[in-house]
Amino acid sequence: MKTSELRQKFLQFFESKGHQIVRSSSLVPYDDPTLLFTNAGMNQFKDVFLGFDKRPYNRATTAQKCVRAGGKHNDLENVGYTARHHTFFEMMGNFSFGDYFKHDAIRFAWEFLTSPEWLNLPKEKLLATVYAEDDEAYNIWLNEIGLPAEKIIRIGDNKGGRYASDNFWQMGDTGPCGPCTEIFYDHGEHIWGGPPGSAEEDGDRFIEIWNNVFMQFNRDEAGNMNPLPKPSVDTGMGLERMAAVMQHVNSNYEIDLFENLLKAAARETGVAFSMEIPSLKVIADHIRACSFLIADGVMPSNEGRGYVLRRIIRRAVRHGYKLGQKNAFFYKLVPDLVKEMGDAYPELKEKQTQIMEALRGEEARFGETLEKGMGLFNQVWRGMQFLKLESLLPVDGVGEPLKLKTADGIGFTV
Predict the structure, then answer these.
(1) Which are the contacts of 212, defined by CB distance < 8 A and separation ≥ 6?
(2) % of the chain residues with pLDDT over 90
(3) pLDDT score recorded for residue 397
């Protein structure tokens, strides 16, 4: 199943369950100063959950654009070197605003994942976690869904404090919160890793694919958990992770969408395509984040969101440089991205020219910075023949002064 088909199936399923399909919000949360970027599907519904906003629907489903590359949620340095870290990703979600609660949320997730009419995943490959004190969710899994007891794992307060748990979600120190139940997929014993709660839980065998958050409390400044008058549901299914499951691969970078972007990155950098080259993964990931951010109005700059964008662009260019591409190339991947995602996100098509111009301009500026750094280096180090000047690599393309290193690993600043 292609990634685009999976995205559409999710939305169609929840629409058939009475949910309103709501368009993804911008990556720039203009009405929420607490966030640098939209980083979860529930962000656009925050005021609805808090009771400050009222929508003409009480059930919603979305395919939400998300970026985690700055602030509290920052996965940037891991991107390209793990199977699932991204700067940009899509979070599929279904939401209940005081309508259904635990029973329907769990039942909907299970039906979509295992029903022959939908994804038809083998039930024996799935397991669930629940908050240790949430007997209601545990009993739903055991008695209504029929999941064996050994595949329902209770997770308690494992983060150093009361309600500090992988299975207890909190919007902040105060406000709506509640237990959650997560669904994991077992990729098989040939992949290293253990189930959630075990010493090997950080391995890649058991992967979380769905999180059902049950917002049923309002935590006050004294830490008291006051029951909400209308408990709500906030769920998330990572599209890239689920696509990997449906396409029988173990890495998000092996799904159809990323494979095509990786091939485009190889084409533009002039290297042979291989899934084993981290720099190609960095470039393929970063073209998504950069293009979507520019489409949503963010431009490279030296502060705030623009600085994060600049850092992502220059990290991609640096990895192209590592592959031997000294000329501007990054902006040339935009048409490939539009081909992959433009139907689902028309803003990419509408702003393709603007995106390409912004990226090309930033590449040119960064190239000038590198050229200047190389010139200063040659002035300082002229005559030191043991250094391989032709293979200088930028260590950090953003900060001033510019940090460089030679192919021999000698680092310096200019």
Answers:
(1) 102, 105, 106, 109, 180, 181, 182, 183, 233, 235
(2) 71
(3) 46
The edge-to-edge listing of strands for the beta sheet with 403-405 is: 393-396, 403-405, 411-413
Cis peptide before 401 (omega within 30 of 0): yes
CA distances from 3 to 140, 241, 243, 257 (A): 30, 10, 6, 7
Q: Give the global pTM.
A: 0.87
Residue 229: Cβ within 10 Å count: 8
pLDDT surpasses 60 at 169? yes
Q: What is the pLDDT of residues 72-128, one digit of tens each?
A: 556 677 887 787 889 999 999 999 999 999 999 999 999 999 999 999 999 999 999
**3-class secondary-structure state, position 353:** helix
Q: Closest Cα to residue 202, out of 83, 372, 344?
A: 83
The label of the residue with tokens 């890495």 reads 251
Token reading at 140:
């739903």
- How do beta strands 126-131 and 175-186 pair? antiparallel
SS3 helix, strand, coil % of the chain, rounded to 5? 40, 20, 40
What single letter denotes the amino acid at residue 50? L
Supply φ then ψ for residue 196, to 5 degrees.
-55, 140
Measured torsion, CA atoms of residues 247, 249, 253, 256, in degrees rounded to the nearest 10: -20
What are the residues whose beta carbons fall under 8 Å from the beta carbon of 51, sequence distance 6 or more?
none
Amino acid letter, 39: N
**Are 64 and 114 contacting, i.e. CB atoms less than 8 angstroms apart?**
no
Q: How far apart are the first and last CA of the chain?
A: 50
Work out whether the CA dihedral 391, 291, 41, 311 comes out positive or negative. positive
Q: Which of 27, 7, 99, 90 is nearest to 60 (CA)?
A: 99
